[in-house]
Amino acid sequence: MTSIFHSGLSKDFSLLLNDADDFNVIIHVGENNNTKEFRAHSVILRARSPYFKGALSSDWVTKKDGMILYNKPNITPIVFDMILKYIYIGELNLEEYLDRDILELLIASDELLVEELFEHVQDYLIKKQTTWIQENLNLALQIAFKITRCKKLQDYCLESICADPQPFITSENFPSLEKDILYILLKQDDLHTDEIFIWDCLIKWGIEQTPGLGSMNSDRTKWNNENHEALKKTLDQFIPLIRFVDISPAEYFDKIRPYKTIIPNHIYEEIEEFYFKGTLPKTTTLPPRIKKNHIDSNIIRPKLISIIINWINKRDAKVSLDKNDLYKFNLIYRGSRDGIRRNLFKSRCNSQESILVLVKCKNLQKIFGVYTPVGFCSYLASFSYYISSSGSFIFSFEKNDDNQNMKISRVISYNYAIFNNSRISEYEFSFGREDLYIRDDNLCIGNSDYEDNLNCGGTYVIEEIEAFKVVKQ
User: Which residues belong to any copy of the TLDc domain (predicted)?
Assistant: First the structure.
């Protein structure tokens, strides 16, 4: 049997990094006032990094008194210190560092060809720093696409934007977005927003990017021919990415037609023929965008739906969705549209199909929800009874776009998962015996047959309620 002594090895190498007197490499890191000298061993650097294996073996390397001198001005001292800890000890606690330093570590680990660290940093950002990435999507996108092989972070950023594009596209940083990244974004088939909104934002981006226009000259009615031609040149590669067939005739008349001069003639002629005759364009042949896992809710923002899908599939909330995770959320009841009526809710949800219910309460940012894979049985039954289910759960979000502070409570007493009340005088539904139920326009939360995870017992006045039929595609 082979004995493993990794802990002792790691401890000895840490001493070698911090206190060694037999080093043969001096590396000057950083520039200007942010510099530091690091001492290391060429044999260790070369063994752990293909970059150093080549760089320190070169005949062009600078030596003085038998010592190798090396400069890395494009890496900050704090980032290089992280890299040396990984190389020597194989340990690194990223929670001790700022998010911007971690992004720089991603760039540096790619340059130094430290593959294991590079993959770990991507995974850490995606799984542990989702809030920061959401708040700094523009920066994260630039870094991700600066590194060709940074596929995980690229995909995560694009998926986050596609799930809920409006915050990113309307941000103050959007007009400065690099054109290559914008091109990739507009090519996405699952960009979940109205096409006319994409068009409006593209025009704003183009105006900001075009010399002679910008905020000082954004009034189209005051442009001359040169201004129109300049904007046309800026947007030339992006116009074919617009799905004009998804834009209504009224929107075309108000928003597209005024910019006729910036659209290539052959494309504009096809657009007009489509709106006047219904003939599908031959040049701009991109299909309508796929509203993948889209939810038409007035209660939650679209980006939260991936969390609910993971819960449905009994996975961790923050796991990236698989390409086969395709669901339709068909709205079957909305209180503000249909009226908050007991019998209507029960009749609309009278099935054995999967149903998701969302509830917003007055004077409260918190969102509540319930999911049942077995639906609600008919209220026409002459007696009340419990419906058994092992996949039901109740949950809460702190607010309609907060994907960090959500809580889920799964059923633990399967035989009491859902209570079907035969009396119409009783409102909507009850999950468990006292866990979550609605009565007299109030949402009541306790604890009995579901995990005690919500920690928000009490009674709340309902402001809005929605029910969706959940269909796996």
Answer: 298-471
CB 458 within 8 A of CB 366: no
Categorize the per-residue pLDDT at 385 as very low, low, confident or very high, splitting at 50, 70 and 90.
confident
Instruction: Evaluate the CA torsion angle 208, 212, 216, 217 in order and state its sign.
Output: negative
Report which of 361, 362, 358 is spatially closest to residue 307, judged by C-alpha positions. Answer: 358
Decide yes or no: CATH 3.30.70.60 for domain 6-146: no
CB 299 within 8 A of CB 367: yes
Q: Cβ distance 257 to 271 under 8 Å? A: no
Q: Are strands 34-40 and 62-64 parallel, antiparallel or unpaired?
A: unpaired
Cα 366 from Cα 271, distance rounded (Å) = 45
Contact yes or no for 156/320 (Cβ under 8 A): yes
Token pair of 222 as six digits: 């005051």
Domain ranges of the chain: 6-146, 164-277, 302-472
Q: Report the alpha-carbon distance of residue 46 to residue 58 in Å, rounded.
A: 12
Report which secondary-structure segment, H or E, holds 445.
strand 442-445
pLDDT digits (tens, 9 = 90+) for 81-104: 999 999 998 889 999 999 999 999
Torsional sign, CA 411, 412, 418, 421: negative
CA 364, CA 237: separation in Å to the nearest integer?
Answer: 46
Q: What is the DSSP letter of 440?
A: T
Lowest mean pLDDT among 36-45, 167-176, 324-333, 372-381: 372-381
Average pLDDT over residues 162-171: 86
Per residue in 4-33, pLDDT (tens digit) is 666 666 666 666 777 667 888 999 999 999
How far is residue 74 from each of residues 128, 172, 176, 234, 354, measured CA to CA in Å? 26, 28, 24, 32, 54
State both tokens at 249.
């005739």
Residues recorded for the chain: 473
For 447-472, the three-class secondary structure string (H helix, E strand, C coil) is CCCECCCCCCCEEEEEEEEEEEEEEE
